Amino acid sequence: MERIGTPQNDVVEDFSTACQRGRAQTMTVAPSSRTHLAACGACLIVALFALWNLRTWPSRITYPGDRNSGVEGIVLAETLDLRAGVPIYSADTSGGFHASAYGPLHYLLGSRLIDPTHPGYLGFRILGALTTLGSAAACGVLAFWVSGSWLGAVLAPLIYLSFAVVSQFDVTARSDSSALLLSFAAFLVGYRFRKCRLLLLSVPFALASYFFKQQFVAGSAALFFYLLLEKRYRLAAEFAGLLALGWLGLMGLFEYAIFPGQNFARHYLTYIATTFSPELFLVSLFFFVFLASIPYVVGWVYLREHHDWALGCYMVCALVLFLVGFSRPGSDRNYFVDLDWITSCLVSAYVVEGIVNRRGLGSRFILLLAVLFCAQWFTRPETPRPIDFVDDRAIQDYLLANFPPHAQGLSYCVGDLVRAGLDTPYTDLFLFSRLVERGVISDARLVSQVRRHHFALIVLNFDPNQEKDQERMHFLLPEAVLAAVRERYRLRDTLSMPGPERLRKLLDRFYVFVPRKESSASEIQEPAALPTPSAKSPVRR
After folding, report:
1. 406 near 422, Cβ under 8 Å?
2. What digits encode the pLDDT tens for the residues 165-186?
3. CB atoms within 10 A of CB 241
4. Radius of gyration of the chain from Cα atoms?
5. pLDDT in tens, 142-157
6. Which alpha helices (H) appear in 66-175, and where do they start and end?
7. How many angstroms separate the CA atoms of 8 and 40, rounded?
8. Which H or E run contains 495?
9. Whole-model pTM?
10. Separation in Å, CA 463 to CA 6, 73, 502, 515
């Protein structure tokens, strides 16, 4: 990665010199109408794509139901339990199961953002929107440092927000946006001070990112490998040592002080460790080719002419972590966001260079359009429609009218149940089934509970008596549990399921199962319609 025409033993310019060179280069070219027109045109094109995504944010944020195929509901249910004092990291699964797959900081922060008497997603989503905008601003800062131009600082955030996958996963109740912002902040601090020991100031941001979500480590990994490539082994060892000591210290803090007696460490290290899938690895390559290959190549074209080991390390680490992260059951395209962030910066710098130097402007604009179109493929986020608001309200009205407060429910749609004041001891049936398959936990207790009619209702997105797709059924429940449901429960009602909550966009419905009448005296009877609780009632609604 040498600059063309530069001897190998040249000293790489420090940060301030590089920025001064970029700004001087910008000022040496006399402004012209063509330059201004190209700059305005680039901003307009990118702004149109960004606004196309941003225009749907109000409905995505205010929609009362789950917008992420059940994941948001899992976060809501576990955060409510944490606030109520329920041990969400307990190793004992006799009474239920909590996935708690995200970092503890997300649950601790989220418990202050929700109202337990009226649980909903609004606080989480506002946090997601703000941190997503923060990540866009961080992209602009890096682009300004790289390009030495305010135009780059404007283009980069707009390109980042043009990626539909950013809105799909970051403006939700998930922890992705908070973890990513902290990871980006860690890289920005390290990049700014990469020539001195102040790089170590990035460690607190990296550690905070790890404990919002474990997987977004491209920034800190890039800094470590950058130091190795620069042969600054002592600083690399200090950086890695501080990260390791800080991680161990925080693990001990959560294990013994914040979640005492819950076996936090085992849960945090074991439950998220799903197996690697060669088939999904091929799928990840497919998505990379169609979603990220063009911006990725553009980024490397820029780096080929502008030597920067730190940015190159980030590009490699982000790609490797995407391919590895996506190649696990249950993973999704959210791992693209790391790549989108760094390529947004480099693509903007590439376009700015063409505008400033008036060199290859036509080809650079064509590549910019290609990047923006790639940003939309296969990642269009589910935007709630008016009918989805109606379907969500109908489900809430049905649950409130037909089941008493704090009745036990079993469902992958746990968000719908907890919003109606029901209890959901099993928060994540997908991860529960994966851990049963791996032999980490047993499903015997759940089978027994189903056979004893422990649950007042079981809600599925299919009818196990009619469904022919065996893989689809076992995706959410082990076979022994499904057999118990068929034997001891009957289908009572079906309702239309809101689009954002469906796993199968055309086939899913809200199937409500209740205990069979011919069961024992301990059977939970079908409840009649209940009056609305008074304002003083502590029931979560």
Report:
1. yes
2. 888 878 889 999 999 999 999 9
3. 12
4. 26
5. 999 999 999 999 999 9
6. 71-83, 104-110, 122-147, 150-162, 164-170
7. 38
8. strand 489-496
9. 0.85
10. 68, 21, 14, 15
